[in-house]
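Dear colleagues,

As part of the handover before I leave the project, I'm documenting each prediction I ran so the next person doesn't have to rerun anything. This entry is a single chain, and its sequence is reproduced below.
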Amino acid sequence: MRPGCPQSVPADGVVMVAGQAFGRSHAGKNVAVVIGDTFFQVLDGDIELSAHVRTSDRLIKQFRPNSRTRQ
């Protein structure tokens, strides 16, 4: 299991990890996404907000958040 990078969830609430979107109910919160072999966990500090089954076995190469900005 890889530790998550704390990141702020944007106003639209969409967090993308390995092509999988989740976290819509966590808009505006600072969360960390923990990456497991078969699941993702969304954490707010030590509190688990949600858990999601991985739908892809895509290799995750980057472990830092990217901001999504439109121009």
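The CA atoms of residues 4 and 24 lie 18 Å apart. The beta strands are 6-8, 15-17, 20-22, 30-35, 39-44, 47-53.

All the best with the project,
I.
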